[in-house]
Amino acid sequence: QVALLDIDICGPSIPKMMGLEGEQVHQSGSGWSPVYVEENLGVMSVGFLLSSPDDAVIWRGPKKNGLIKQFLRDVDWGEIDYLIVDTPPGTSDEHLSVVQYLSAAHIDGAVIITTPQEVSLQDVRKEISFCRKVKLPIIGVVENMSGFICPKCKKESQIFPPTTGGAEKMCQNLNVSLLGKVPLDPQIGKSCDRGQSFLSEAPESPATSSYRNIIQRIQEYCDQHHFQEEKII
């Protein structure tokens, strides 16, 4: 059972990507009911609270923090195995709030996404520094848009050249795990726009194989993290 919480308050894209655009949140005696993609995947996003997906959310920090707290307190997820929190880029109010509010829950860790070029890696180094300052474990880094594999000749081209060594070099320097590299695939963008599962739509894509390997590594990390906590208890 997986819960997906979108706390990108000003740019909620999860409803579109999950095929849930236009859905509404319902309230019951036990709290807000998440919107379900499948029986084992529930979603909550500020996007469900907007009258139109084009509406701008112009909120200052305290109001954002209040909504995040309400999501964490009032959404009735039921029994879940994983809570995945999708955050906006950077190190802003949303990140500080969710780390603070979930501190007692012993967060497994953060998965940090980058692209190969240095302009992206600069921001990711700041995010790694943020995690270490707030004592948030880092599960690892995923390099997105990591080369393009031609579907016909199978030759790989570097659309975004890793001029400073990409995520692999950065992870070595900062002693962080590289969970995997996801190559460019036009079908990923199409699947997101249509709200369809890329893994189901393109099972033979090299990107699908990368995603599955990354998911497996994250699951193994979480299982090990829980095992160590149980030993301490």
TrEMBL record:
GO CC annotation terms, alphabetical: cytosol; nucleus
Cellular location(s): Cytoplasm; Nucleus
Keyword Iron carried by entry: yes
One Pfam family, short name: ParA
MF-aspect GO terms: 4 iron, 4 sulfur cluster binding; ATP binding; ATP-dependent FeS chaperone activity; metal ion binding
BP GO terms, sorted: iron-sulfur cluster assembly
InterPro entries in the record: Mrp-like_CS, Mrp/NBP35_ATP-bd, P-loop_NTPase, YlxH/NBP35
CDD domains: Mrp_NBP35
Key words of the record: 4Fe-4S, ATP-binding, Cytoplasm, Iron, Iron-sulfur, Metal-binding, Nucleotide-binding
Role: Component of the cytosolic iron-sulfur (Fe/S) protein assembly (CIA) machinery. Required for maturation of extramitochondrial Fe-S proteins. The NUBP1-NUBP2 heterotetramer forms a Fe-S scaffold complex, mediating the de novo assembly of an Fe-S cluster and its transfer to target apoproteins. Implicated in the regulation of centrosome duplication. Negatively regulates cilium formation and structure.
HAMAP family on file: Mrp_NBP35 (MF_02040)
Identification of the protein by name: Cytosolic Fe-S cluster assembly factor NUBP1
Taxonomic placement: Eukaryota, Metazoa, Chordata, Craniata, Vertebrata
